[in-house]
Sesquiterpene cyclase
Amino acid sequence: MPFPFQSNRHESEAAAGVATWLRRWGLTDDPAVAAMIAATRPAELASYNSPAMDGDVLQIVANQIAYQFVFDDRAEEVGRRWPGRLLPMLCESVGILLDDQPPNSALGAALADLHRQVRERCTPGQAARWAWNSREYVHGLMYEAVAQTQPFPLRLGVCGSIRSLTAGVEPFHPLCEAAQPCELAPEELHHPVVRRLARLSADAAVWIPDLYSAVKEQQAGELINLALAYQRAHRCSLPVAVKLAIRRINNTIREFEELYDGVRPELSPSGIGYVDGMAGWIRGCYHWSRTVPRYAEAGAVPAP
């Protein structure tokens, strides 16, 4: 891991804010959800990912991390036990993000409030990018549900494409931008190298936790995991598959570093801060995954 460990000085305040926000919308009324949040530590992940971020934006990041963990777990449960209920659940989220439709569930109400927080803190362009990326994350959960029902093994490329969406990392990139002094100019935001850096950041950030959750997800019959995809593709043991996944992660991080070094002279100070935020997600997910209780049972999987 080339990026050193850092944490945000506002972490404890963000943790308290997350707990209050989740209670406000009734998301931790279920003891199982409350236990999941305690084991996941969303404010810690936000702190490690965004060590230099001001407290107000960090709170939105922490709230969104908590929301996505609750939403993702709920979508997985609904898709497995009551498949017919999954589409209305996901459509509610898309309607809130696309058309400001009124919510009809506690999760929907929390998402609507999160959308409000983003619009109040971000520029209209940043808020629109946040909503677009968040809709793509919701679409990814539907693709994942369809993939889980297929009787044939998923190809490595298909698994990677779905994982890129369900990672839910790219919705945070506009918040990285919002933390900068200025909104990025279109030519900088859409620079081909910057767009490639965004993709590399999201992939590396989510593939790292896949290493630590592989044992648990294998036992649960999950498919959308980089290490498990390598195991299926190469018909090898899980430790060998994890090593193959680590090799891909390392190559992704090296490409990120090389491209960033090349494009940095062309970027404004805000552009540099934006890409630093992407790098923060790689570093943060690494250090968080190594210690978070959520993955404690996967300790037998070799570390990267």
Notes: Residues 11-298 form a domain with the Farnesyl Diphosphate Synthase fold (CATH 1.10.600.10). Confidence is low (pLDDT under 50) at residues 299-304.
